[in-house]
Amino acid sequence: PNAACRSSNSRRWPRPPTAMPDAWHTTAVDGLATGEADLQTWWRLFDDQQLNELVMRSAGGNLTLREALWRVEEARALRGVVAGAQKPQVDASADASRAKASENGTLQPIVPESGLDAGNLFDVGVGAFWELDVFGRIRRQVEAADATTQATVESYRDVLVSLYAETALAYISVRTSQERLRIANANVDAQESTLRLTKDRFAAGLVSGLDIAQAESNLANTYSLIPVIERDLEGSLNRLAVLLGDEPGALHEALSNLAPIPSEPQEVTVGLPVELVRQRPDVREAERLLAAQTARIGVATADLYPSFGLSGFLGVSATSGSDLLDSGSVTWSVGLPIRWSIFSGGRIRSEIRAEEARTEELLAN
Prior knowledge:
Layout: H1 2-5, E1 32-34, H2 49-61, H3 63-83, E2 89-99, E3 119-132, H4 137-203, H5 209-243, E4 268-270, H6 273-278, H7 281-302, E5 307-318, E6 330-335, E7 338-339, H8 347-364
Parallel strand pairs: 1-4
Antiparallel strand pairs: 2-3, 3-5, 5-6, 5-7
Helix pairs in contact: 2-4, 3-4, 4-5, 4-7, 7-8
């Protein structure tokens, strides 16, 4: 990647090779099929309409996702800031001043004939500057900004992966807790009936008092489980509401109806390992960050060479405002500024080595 980034003739570079097996090490069990896995909408395999709706709602209301989206917008705007340096910069200026020169601070031979009395000066003009990107410094900056923008997009997608997974997990936890609560209440009814029957049998002399104590213990244990399950249900409902960008408690009424726990499909399709890696946005984000850092080596390298520009100014200058439109007040200039850091004490080459080290760091990441 370092060698590729130094080339000013290409805006692309080869991706780092990644060795991946062409099959899973663990033998596939029943219910797994090889093929092209649809990982982008995996939750639809549960065939639960309410789960589908909640996942879609989370994409529109989650605050963490909204934060990631605005990071993308920020990166796009900053890319425009960098790209703007490729075009001429034009500024308008105007100035009106009145000044008096010091009588004691001016050499007598150069005192103007008009003397050192206070005078007016009016200036109006338009100045322009255009950096000629001969050695690709600005182009490399734009490359880095492009790759950074792409990295923020992948970061947004990475948040989506986590958000969808957490939303589905919270929803399944809600349905699981509701089912556990239903079973616990049914067990309470059954154990209360058992306790009444045991007491009747004890009254008839058919069982001992130990059987009553055992039935009461079973009933008490089941009663003690209900608050724990209700607490878990409350926490899952609140967590799901926050994931959707709502306040805690917003989904209690909507999900109060009992529904079955989403069941897994009869068959799950799994792709090849390398295909799974390609679909991971965090891996793609790391690759884009590496691409951005690679371009920054070119930015630092361009400082070894001179920079060229074109500058110009066109305006009018006069000591009286009424003379500004006179042809004799026109002033202009054209320049070819050149800047070259001949000696910097090794600063530029140290910056290049630092950028190369950051690139190797991101490559390892």
